Amino acid sequence: MVRGAGTLLNMGTVLLGSGLGVFLGSRLPERTRTTVTDALGLVTLVIGALNVAALSDPAFRSAVGGSATLLVVLGALLVGGIAGSLLGLESRLEGIGAWLQRRLSGPGSARRERFVEGYVSASLVFVVGPLAILGSLSDGLGRGIDQLALKSTLDGFAALAFAASFGWGVAASAISVGVVQGLLTLLGALLGGLLPEALISSVTATGGVLLLGVGLRLLELKPVAVGDLLPALLAAPALTALVQALR
């Protein structure tokens, strides 16, 4: 299997699911689309909580100490949040969505806002989870695309549900999937089997917290600037390695 095939498959299912979602969404009443979005928010919270369970991963606990895993994730979120806010990642991500909307959709502030929200929310859900990280690394390591195949199936259904509520902005998230997972696949090919399980677990747990933020956004409970927190995914393994070295 050619490296990168899993990401191409994932992009295809996102586009297919988005197309079907837009087709169905125009035939659904607003109340139904809102209910679908709420359901996605709840499921995203569940997935995030499951990912946060990586805090208790034996390799992670052994590397930094049983009581320090949460502190590492907290530190990563603080460092990543400061860096991301200074760089304006959230606004940049929204700007990309607005730029795509101007070229792929018609004018109108309400439509633009809906497009951008669909692009940002779907992008974060599709690229933050552990399957995106582990599956892409596995693909790059030449271990097959089984994890990305599973993720592609799940993302296809999720894209259908998202697009029924947000429209074509969800389809644009296929670009984010291609860029992020493509880079992770390349990283896996370059690093080989050098990534310890503890570092991967730290990224998984941190990603789970970010997904909780996405869930809160979808439920309109709190507009968490998850985009500004994305550098935490890089800070988490760095802090894990630092704490492990100092112990």
Key structural traits:
247 residues, mainly alpha, 11 helices, 80% helix
Please describe what this structure looks like.
The protein has one domain (5-246). With 247 residues, the protein is mainly α. The chain has 11 helices and no strands. The termini are far apart. The radius of gyration is 18 Å and the shape is globular.
Amino-to-carboxy terminus distance: 41 Å
Q: How many H/I helical runs?
A: 11
Percent helix range: over 70%
Give the strand tally: 0
Q: Percent of residues in beta strands?
A: under 5%
Q: How big is the Rg?
A: 18 Å
3D shape: globular
Question: What's the number of domains?
Answer: 1
Structural class: mainly alpha
Low-confidence runs (pLDDT<50, min 5 residues)?
Answer: none
Q: What's the pLDDT, averaged over the residues? A: 83
Give me the strand/helix succession.
HHHHHHHHHHH
Largest sheet: none
